[in-house]
Amino acid sequence: MTKHQHIQPIKVTANKKFFGTLCGIGAAVCYGTNPLGAQLYSEGMLPQSVLFWRFGLAFIIIAIVMLFRKESLRVTRREFGVLTALGLLFLVSSLTLYVSFRLMAVGVASTILFVYPVMTAAIMALFFKERLTVVTALSIVLSFVGVLLLYWTPGGGRLPADGVALVLASALTYAVYIIIMNRANLQMSSFKINFYVLIYCALGDLVMTFFNGGLQVPQTAQGWLVVGWLAVVPAILALVMMVYAAKYIGSTPTAIMGALEPTTAVLIGIFLFGEEFSARLGFGIALIFIAVIIIALQSNKSDNKKEKTTL
User: For position 1, what pLDDT does the model report?
Assistant: First the structure.
């Protein structure tokens, strides 16, 4: 992109709203496979090393895609500042989440992480005067109740305070990431945005390895397969779809659709690891899907009204 090119503002049509909704769902499902990375801890790897290989490989793939697209890396000073903020936020969010996986069960951590839609809605209402509609509030409540029902871990032991604090920090930085992505209105492709985001994530995690015994490498073919999955699915696919979702449907709907993340983690446990499926688990998943459908229908209905008024 040259400095003489003029980018027209994006007109969000009904088709783009629908596409954004699909991207929000896809991003949540892809990002929900993050707990698979905890398998690498059994090979003696620390979170920062796992994340370095994940983001490093994802960066290489994105760079190759951009090379074939012949896309310029040039950005303005404002765009560089926004991209820096996004990169650092995603670095902190991913690192705190992966460290929490060492302190508590990944399913529990993924469940607690879901407070970020509530944080997103609260931040938008408090600082950006976004009106919290009854439908949006109902979707948040249904999603939150559904995720609570996914918390099937037996026993009455207390969760570690440091682990909970890390997950909450991950949720907060992820919520701010979604809001900035939506409000910054970056006029560039999702590949270009994530090219810069992944640079910060990979370099940040590499620096962290120097303070924790050096960079560690996967020891098995299965380990490298997990790294490849983490690079492609919860990194590239999730991040690319997140850009379109935040751009076309907004911060709060995108965050609410993130309820599918812990649902994905539960389904992985059921079908891959043979974990028990209970009626309470099924009811919780149903509530989450209802919440996602409600918010999607509201988004499309709002857009249809806008289109009718412009005819």
Answer: 39
